Amino acid sequence: xxxxxxxxxxxxxxxxEDDWALKDISFSVAPGExxxxxxxxxxxxxTMAKALNGLITPAAGTVEVAxxxxxxxxxxxxRKNVGMVFQNPDNQFxxxxxxxxxxxxxxxxxxPRPEMVKRVTxxxxxxxxxDFATREPASLSGGQKQRVAIAGVVAARPKIIILDxxxxxxxxxxxxxxxxxxxxxxxxxxxxxxxxxxxxxEAALASRILVVEDGKILMSGTPEEIFSxxxxxxELGLDLPYPEKLKAALRKRGITVPQEYMTEERLVxxxxxxxxxM
Length: 278
Known about the structure:
By secondary structure, the chain is α/β, with parallel strands linked by helices.
């Protein structure tokens, strides 16, 4: 299967006197895959996201999206295939009501009104915000605002959704709302998802994780493979899922624990079995 995203030898820096924000980045993403990109602030992960949508022009390398090599000539066609949800939903709102906001991007693309109304209605149903269609966006909670932002992207029917720290400003309940929404829509629409995130629990839901450090991809693997490098990730200033933190605490107490990554459920089962055998 041909990758839906293919990046080769990407380089970028914001100013001539600056160090490179991206240093020879190469990776690919399969259709329908969920890839999480993690790294501390300034590692280059958000710059990677901007490169995929043509928001920045690389100094070197190529970006291929849905079979098209990104260029000035096709950047708007590329953007039809890539929807982005940003960190602060308030910065994305332009409509007086929720339904107006979801319709805004479709109006700009010249979608006929009957089709536009249909898409807006369907998108709000998908994010469970139909009851708020005539509300002002400013009256919504953080999680609700982000779900409306997602609806605006979904209504445009892209093949790829990029979440650029989309849950970082939300409280725990809002994060859960947004991630559940993305999971449901991804499954229903067979979308490809890239999430740039600090939320390790969000990253754990991905099928693959890229760890970015100093403008380079340092590691790539499944969540199980990446989280097994627990101490190394902590050296990079990254968080770990609770089971890995607990395993590290047990090791300090001289308790031998499994090396492989374990979900909370698997760790509870292991602890239960270990205690029962004492």
